[in-house]
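General statements about sequence and structure are easier to judge against a single worked case. No coordinates are needed to read the tokens, only the vocabulary itself. The sequence in question and its structure tokens are set out directly beneath this paragraph.
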Amino acid sequence: METGQEVQAMPRIGDPAPEFKAVTTQGEITFPADYSGKWVILFSHPADFTPVCTSEFITFASMEDKFEEAGCKLVGLSVDGLYSHIAWLRTIKEKIEYRGMKDVEVNFPLIEDITMNVARKYGMIQPGEDTTKAVRAVFFIDPKGTIRTIIYYPLSLGRNFDELYRVLIALKAADEFGIATPADWRPGDDVIVGPAGSCGSAKDRMDGKEDMQCQDWFFCSRKIAKETVLDAVLKK
């Protein structure tokens, strides 16, 4: 460790989201207090006026209503200044088309973080990747202000936004139904009943659920209809 270098622990899943106040393209925010009672995705991008970030912002902005319907707010961040943010978002709206998406207006807040204060609190500056740009970090924060999922991508890799939406719905379904979701789960697929010490204990928790299937003591699943999942998790 180099002398004089500030070391700050990265937040972990289950930790309270680090608090901060910041100027954004939509005014000042106090985070996460301003989003109490709602899910929020806080995500960072390396820099304004860069192509991968531009494709991501167009995609996220085009999906904002979909996330809003699922009760989730979006908050972006980079270490650029406010005027750079404003100019970049204007350029996106006026000049850039990506996969048929054009004239896209970004209405969610984009945080100014030229001091890197917020980026450091959230472990978004990773010197092995870059010392002056934030990596592509994604934090899912629940209505109680608790970090529930963290995903990091390198500067060169654009995110899969269908997957980010899938993660949100899966987290909300897990909370709503007291279940876990298997690999590649989407609403309507079987869910996992667990963790169970035995198939019997899993069945005890799912009393009356005749559709529960156990392949062995550690692997029990049941069906929840797609409509049931979506009715439970949307608008909450």
Notes: The longest helix spans residues 161-177. The mean pLDDT is 90. Helices lie at 51-62, 64-69, 82-95, 117-121, 161-177, 199-205, 226-233. The chain is about 30% helix and 20% strand.
